[in-house]
Amino acid sequence: MSTAQLAYTFTLAYWKQHKQFPKMPIPLFVWKLADSDRDHHLAVSQKFYGDMTQLSAWNAANKNAQSGLAVFAYYYPGSSIRLAHFMGWYPGAEAGQWRNRVRVSNFEVNRTITNWISPLVNIVRCGYLPTSLPFAGNCLQEQNLTIDRWRDV
After folding, report:
1. Burial of 128 (C-beta count, 10 Å sphere; 0-12/13-18/19+)
2. In a domain, 125, yes or no
3. Which end of the chain is more exposed for a tag (fewer CB within 10 A), N or C?
4. Residue 9, in any domain of the structure
């Protein structure tokens, strides 16, 4: 729930600063699951988590879930095809399947860099750091950059 509240607070700050919505997922609603559903999910999914002693995904998931699990609905104002899809290494993406859907001939390095860096600068101008928990991700990783950043935003 705190993640959704933070996203909502950030979206409002971005709107006040830039008079437009950010080109990133915007939370629409959050539905908190019952504790019994959380407990069932944890019991069923435990076998899928790694359990290395120092970086136990299971321990982290279990700890985070104790405050509750929720379903998030987001709106993304653009294409959801990520750079990682285009590169063929995003989980579930067949190698190159997205390449035929993007006009690579329109690719311009300077425009692309500007369109990927500008949101980062705008996020910082709003007083936020464009990343999540340590090692979880940031807005300039291949799995977070969308192909629509090739066009002017």
Report:
1. middle
2. yes
3. N
4. yes
Structural domains in the chain (count): 1
Query: Which pLDDT tens digits describe the chain residue by residue (153 residues)?
Result: 677 788 888 889 999 999 988 878 888 888 989 999 999 999 998 888 766 665 677 888 888 888 888 888 888 877 777 777 767 666 656 555 555 555 554 556 677 777 778 888 888 999 888 776 655 667 777 777 777 654 444
95 is in which domain, residue-wise? 2-33+69-150
DSSP 93: P
- Partnered with residue 70 across adjacent β-strands are 32
Output the six-digit token pair for 43: 């019991």
The amino acid sitting at 76 is: Y
